[in-house]
Amino acid sequence: MNFSLHVRALLCGFLLAGGAAWAAEPATPAQAAAPGHAGIASASNYATDAGFAVLAKGGNAFDAAVAVAAALSVVEPESSGIGGGFMATLHLAKGGRNVFIDARETAPMAVNSKDYLNPDGTPNRDTALKGPLSAGIPGEPAGLVLLAERYGKLPLAVSLAPAIKLAKEGFKPAPRLLRSIAREQKNLERWPASVAKFLPGGKVPAAGEIWRDPEQARTLELLAKDGNAGFYQGEVANKLVAAVRAAGGNWTLADLGNYRAKERTPISVDYRGYRIVTAPPPSSGGVAIAEMLNILRGYDLTKMDPATRAHYEIEAMRRAYRDHNDYLGDPDFVQMPLAMLLSPYYADGLRQSILKDRATPSDMLPHESVHEPGQHTTHFSIIDKDGNMVGITSTVNYILGSTFVAKGTGVLLNDEMDDFALVPDQPNVYGLLGSKANAPKGGKRMLSSMSPTIVIGKDRSAVIGSPGGSTIITQVFEGIMHFIDGQGAQQIVADKRYHHQFLPDVVYVEDGVFDAATSARLKAMGYTLKPREPWGFMNVVTWNHRGNQLDAASDPRHHDGLGKVE
Predict the structure, then answer these.
(1) Helix (H), strand (E) at residue 103
(2) What's the half-sphere exposure (Cβ side, CA atoms, 13 Å) at 299?
(3) Closest CA to 190 of 412, 407, 404, 408
(4) Fewer C-beta neighbours within 10 Å, C or N terminus of the chain?
């Protein structure tokens, strides 16, 4: 029996013996007193200020989240927008309820895997990543409507007003956006509407120029006026479908009209006295984070030297990503063994396979030629004066999504079709493998790494998240660990990071994450350390319950984010 089968048999034995079941939503620790002020951390000062503007009008954290997300659609389109989707983890102060909103994109009903293959059967990276065939049906507009109508206090039009104003009156693009446009200029030039939006006058906007987006302003106004019907029906829907089909895509009005954002039960796991509330499938992040924490609960990491602690954390990452590749997909289409994956007995079995002083080679699947992890998504965190908490990770997938703008809408479409396992056991652009569980099918949501997470403790709580492609999961995991170790928001976002995703069998490291002695010990254990940049754009808000003190911080690796408390 090979190693993989041996481990699976061992784990099944544990499960049968223990009769464990996954408790999807354990009771949340008692809610602390309200903080009395609010904290927002996002990737843009414009977006953070939009959130506070809505709070000042009497909105709550969920109204502010609508404002921040919509503003990011205008000012940070390289990472997210109304042509993409998001995942949100919410904590409602009243009653202590936790909620997850799935506004992930879906495949059009006419999806055909052959459209994403080269003649030799290998993935066609162009159709998977560029142009209308790469785009799933957007989920963000429906998610914002659901968030406002079900959990907000203000009309949707009020929460969308700051983004509409930004799009109409203009803003100064951040250097990251200008670099993204320059990098993708040749792809943008393939479609006239993309040129009109991103290359006015046929060139990349100059630093300091005021940039306006009147067509997206019009689309946001229709969304504000008519809710879902303003985007998924009528003028906008007709323009989206016409543009997509004229450029070789396969969307229909029915695809748009049938889209629904969904509420799901978040994954909750206890670790060292804290309740971690995180994303369920179709995110792979929450399952992987829970699996890692369940493995590591068997060790006292606080008493370990840095190399030994890193060894156990890397091995937990390795095993969680192995299961990510094998099992996970859209829960509306595939049955997943979540009770097994989230069981402490399963983690006990995985822990048994970790050697004390040696790396476990990732030889359970054939090695493939894979890309390095990417980071073209965004995350923001909010805690309001009443103690409502929200973490939203939003994306158009790769840099500037599909680079295809639908004429007459200002909507930049995502390229999320690449997040399906278009060819089983072949890597996507982030190097992640997939199985039939994540194969494309009409109406199906593609698997995601987005992992917006809320950590709730007796004395301290936090909202944590980051972009980063396949590294999102490990970045959030490390943020959770640092928070539980006692760090504040500023230190958490600044901490150096590392990542292992099973294949390729390397540990990606940020410069300075390990000192020379720790690096040498890890290499002696059999690890291959590979430097990489960049490392996400983490945004964190923490809450010290005892002093009712909030702290909001945006990743110092970037200079255009803003963490703010007022």
Answers:
(1) strand 97-103
(2) 24
(3) 404
(4) N
Catalytic residue among 89, 127, 278, 377: 377
360 among known catalytic residues = no
Residue 166, SS3 per DSSP: helix
Which DSSP letter does residue 207 get? T
User: How long is the chain?
Assistant: 566
CA dist 479 → 58, 177, 482, 485, 538 (Å): 31, 26, 5, 10, 9
Dihedral angle sign, alpha carbons of residues 191, 195, 196, 201: negative
| Phi, psi angle pair for 340, to nearest 5° | -70, -50
The answer on pLDDT for 8 being more than 90 is no
pLDDT in tens, 82-110: 999 999 999 999 999 999 999 999 999 99
Q: Edge-to-edge, what's the strand order for the sheet holding 274-278?
A: 267-271, 274-278, 453-456, 460-465, 539-544, 549-554
Two tokens at 471?
Answer: 């590294």
Task: Report the number of secondary-structure helices (H) and strands (E) in the chain.
Answer: 20, 18
Domain boundaries, given as residue ranges, for the chain: 1-566
Distance CA 496, CA 510 (A): 6
> Measuring CA to CA, which residue among 401, 383, 436, 558 is closest to residue 85?
401
